[in-house]
Design brief:
This is DUF4085 family protein. The protein is mostly beta strands. It has no helices and six strands.
């Protein structure tokens, strides 16, 4: 992930034990625009909106989220 121009230096996000709920086409080549996190019983539900063709969305659940500088 290219983090230039963002509010963080983190450029790697790992979703542990992830299950994809919804994955729209055209995510590859798009930029991460917006994210919402919801606490659920066993971790998080993550909604990610991408800037690109069709403004694709990804929704997943995971047990934990790790953000790193690589």
């Amino acid at each position: 992930m290219d983090a230039r121009g963002s509010f963080t230096e983190c450029n790697k996000v790992t979703f542990q034990n992830a299950d994809i709920i919804k994955q729209e086409p055209n995510i590859t080549g798009s930029s991460w625009l917006y994210c919402e996190l919801y606490r659920i019983e066993n971790g998080y539900e993550v909604h990610i909106l991408f800037w690109g063709e069709g403004m694709p969305e990804l929704i997943l659940t995971c047990s934990d989220i790790m953000m790193e500088i690589e």
